[in-house]
Amino acid sequence: MNFEPKILGFLCNWCSYAGADLAGVSRIQYPPNIRVIRVMCSGRVDPEFIIQGFQTGIDGIIVMGCHPGDCHYLEGNYEAEMKYKMVQKFLKFINFDNRVRLEWVSASEGNRFAEIVTDFTRQIKEQGPSPVGGKSPDSMLLDKLNAILLAIGSYRMRALVGRERIITEFENVYGEKVPLEKFDDIFDTAIRDEYLRHQILISLSNDPKSVKDLAIELETDPSVILKNILVLKNRSQVNMEKIVGVTPIYTNIMEG
Amino acid sequence: MEKVGAVLVVGAGIGGSQAALDLADSGYKVYLVESSTSIGGVMAQLDKTFPTNDCAICIVSPKLVEAGRHPNIEIKIKSEIMNVSGEVGNFNIDLMEHTLFIDQEKCTGCGICGQECPVEAIDLFNEGLSSNSATSVKYPQAVPLVYAINRDYCIGCGICKGVCQAKAIDYKLKSKKTQLKVGSVILALGFDEFEADVLKQYGYGKYKNVVSSIEFERILSASGPYSGHVLRSSDGNVPQKIAFLQCVGSRDPKFGKEYCSSVCCMYTAKEAVIAKEHTEGLEATIFSMDIRAYGKDFDKYIERAKEEYGVKYVRSRISSIEEIPGTKDLKLTYETEEGKIISEIFDMVILGVGLTPPKDASKIADTFDIDLNKYGFIKTQPLKPVETGRPGIYVCGACSSPKDIPETVIEASAAAGKVNIDLSPARGTLVTTKKYPDEIDVSGQPIRIGVFICHCGINIGGYVDVPAVVKYAETLPDVAYSERNLYTCSADTQSLIQEKIKEHKLNRVIVASCTPRTHEPLFQETIREIGLNKYLFQMTNIRDQCSWVHMREPEKATEKAKDLVRMAVAKVRLNTPLSTVPLKVNPSALIIGGGVAGMTAALNFSQQGFKIKLIEKDKKLGGFSSKIYKTIEGDDIQEFLQELINNVENEDLIDVYLGAEIQDIDGYVGNFKTTIIQDNSKKKLEIEHGIIIVATGAKEYIPKEYEYGVNPNVITQKELENRLFNKGNFSNIKSIVMIQCVGSRNEENPYCSRICCSEAIKNAIRLKEQYPDKEISILYRDIRTYGFKEKYYREAREKGILFIRYKKESPPELISNKERIKINLKNERLGDILLDSDLLVLSTGMIAPSKENETLAKLLKVPLNEDKFFLEAHVKLRPVDFATEGIFLCGTAHGPATIGESIAQANSAVSRATIILSKETLMIGGIVSSVDKDLCTGCKICVRICPFNAIIKDDEGYAYVQEALCKGCGVCGASCPEKAISIKHFTNEQILSEIYALGGNIIE
Fold first, then answer.
1. Ordered domains of chain B (ranges, CATH)
2. How far is CA B649 from CA B611, B644, B697, in A?
3. Which of B54, B544, B549 sits opposite A70 (nearest CB)?
4. What is the pTM of this model?
5. Which of A51, B175, B357, B700 fits as disulfide partner to B376, beta carbons 3.0 to 4.6 Å?
6. Does A231 touch chain B (CB under 8 A)?
7. Which pLDDT score, from 0 to 100, does residue A176 have?
8. What's B379's DSSP letter?
């Protein structure tokens, strides 16, 4: 049987939803895979929604907003873009970055809406069914998605992305503009670290493990694991449970 | 006689619609009369708008929808005014509503009639470039969305009646006469393009690849005839070289009209830019005389068109145009600035057609007994920009002079502002106030959902298996009732929904039909009428986004419809009633700035009975205008200003604070508290008020150029005016040189000051009239006598005043100042010129008082543009509003403007503010965000991110949402690091429930 992907679209009320309506009024045909959730502004789309969407087995997710400068709420679409970029970076870890897209569609672009949906549907068909969809989802991948969900929802990531525009495009508290490259460096490091830390936490919540065990499981250099274990220890999220021989065993001490 | 609290607005383009909305929101009944079949006018036809390249339909459509469903606006389409009698406060209007042959009440706008019509007639909206049918709507987003039969094309085959399932078609439907009683009238007739005759000399109508600018606008539009691809109509090829001709019919008394059409320079630049965006490698050349980019941020747009987009400007009027047989390319012949004759071949030619008065202007002027000016536009006075001369009848937009969208919107609100003065005693007498039953308390009730699925004739039912979707809906959790309707939006279905709510004790309702953008309010109203909170309703779109776009895959469309209904059910289960609470409004205004704009605003408010606090930093009222003596048209400014000051000082409702400085501004819309000090004293004064108008003005640029201040024979235009009007001595002066754009349009101030060209011409003409033997030269870059001011430019040249152009790169140089002033100038055609003069007059621009503006902007938390002028909420459609509710701006605080324009802005700002002040309370709440204090850490990300300044830190340091300012976009919620903010009606749980309902796999 042909693969018919489940595609979710978040459309802002003012431009892209109106563009989708115009495609309808103009009877422009496009593949029927997309299901739309209407939000008032593309900036409303919480990064977590996208990850949670994938967790439930959706094959592709597209966010659409007003063209830059057209936002009904002045600049919500710029915020959407910041968040989307972060989501993309996280999803790259699990090769899901080709399953998301952000597009600008105006109220007069019925054609463009249909073209984008057609193209995105084709793209998702090429990607094939989501490994976490269907009856027997890939549990390893689900763990990774869960780690991404926790990382993307962490205070640190949300704080960084929430300040990104202000400090890179306007000014920080010192009246300076932080160069984008510099910010991106910090941001990318944070993404990498938080993803790994949450993978560690998830792994440790299943059962206590040593640095070496974690290194093998997460395919990461043990010294890097250790560094991050120490951060988590400082955050009171893991504890050294015992030492077996010369090998300390760590456990997740967070609730639940 | 008692005044009638209703207003007639004639013409429902952007101007008429804006005026109607302002008035309807301020407590008046409005009849919005439109001659065509839908509202929106020319703006709805445009692709993008300058200088922001905003999508026109994106920004105008929400306004039209709002007008279409406003309880106090009655739209009369295809209607005509037959007779007018009475006087201000009490007019009787005879109206003829022409038949559509389709019952407006019954038509659902589904469009089947249009699809089945066998006669392909012409589609006016696309300017005749594509075909439509004899029964049609003007455009897909039309408001009201009703079809009309065009009798000129209809052959009477009767097919449409057969296919119309709403039984709306009635060939016997007669036109009907109605009488309306109104207190005031606003004419917003818009404009027409020049007749084809004027265009014929450019081969229009004869050569296929010569099109008018408005036709080209449709060609550029994504929803236009070519779906946004730029194509030649002769062969459908993509053009590689396009020529744009400016001043087609404008500034051309021989073949066209004497005046300047004001908007063509900008829309042409925009069309060239967009065309280049749409077509890779396209060469765009604009042939123009002066480039008149005199509006806010317009010059920057032209620079970008040149620099970034590579649009080429040639300063020339073409001398001939010929079509090349075979290729149908066009050969243009023109003379360059250096005087060379050149022939060049283009693929396509766009005529920058000017604006003429609407075709029916003279008939309407007769009907309303008002005057037209010599150009056939409705006559107004420079200092009374929206008054027709007949009391109670006002005018706005391009029917009184050519103007662009923001100027039209400003005048629309200004006209509404004037109506407010006439009719404020009758405010609220004719508006619909609907009584709703007490709301049913649904808390604690088990959830019972009713699902109503629409066939929309065959629009949905023809492709989606509606009975199957109904059956499926019944299986979903908490669904107590499900049914299908032929048209869920019809009036009888509304009663049916209400009956079913009662019968089945439903407490949540879903309609699966068309788009919530247009229909959600209707269904929300239906459930409110029976006592359910409107937020217990959920709509899902199975037509525009399902049946219509998957017509060839009915099974998959049915599956999609089921999924969408399942998602809606999941969400509506979590919907809760949202309440709105009244917030008391302090019915008084704070006006900052005591110039013409501030005082005009103050007097408008006082005539409506509102209290005003007017604060001025100087020791006296008057502002910038104190230095101006006459307008170019000859109005006496000093006399006008003195009268204004007297009126303000004698008005009991206005408290004037001179020498005042603002220390602090607290609060928000409806309830502000401002602290001021006067005359540098220590004593602080607290003022409470409901709204704020910023009318702080601009200041004169003090030149550093041309030894100004050193050489007494170098003066500014203002100083010259002072001498001219105060019997200054000119006896030793033989020749005078004026230099334009001193301190404007340069790196420091990269904008046009708008008024200096007219000012120089005004003074030059007066000098010449008093001293005909004096030699006067004006050195300029572009002469920007827009609109009817063009007449004075012509007059000046006829009087022998010499105009010599210079380029930005080579400004006039001061050579010697020993005895006489010598100016060296490079001109393309004349080469180096040396001018001798006894008096050098510098036309200096307006600049923003940057320090003061920065301070005030911080206090108000409103933005400034790059040039430190205040930045409005939206350059096109909200020209006098700030994004922050309750704060408005007018006059030169917004950017350079004439006195007349400032007056229009002042009345406009008053109208916008009156929407708030006319209400005892504002209803706040509904879809807004709220902060969970237990989770908030006080990081302030939301405070910085909210574009409306709705979130502040409270006394304890937590984020606090000022609901009166919140627009419900939800950006704060998606950004809060602690997820402490939730957006009502779009909560995380609600959106996640939809996601989960789609995804299927349950997350543990």
1. 1-98+175-191+357-434 (3.50.50.60), 100-174 (3.30.70), 192-356 (3.50.50.60), 449-576 (3.40.50), 584-698+848-917 (3.50.50.60), 700-847 (3.50.50.60), 923-999 (3.30.70.20)
2. 14, 9, 20
3. B54
4. 0.89
5. B357
6. no
7. 87
8. P
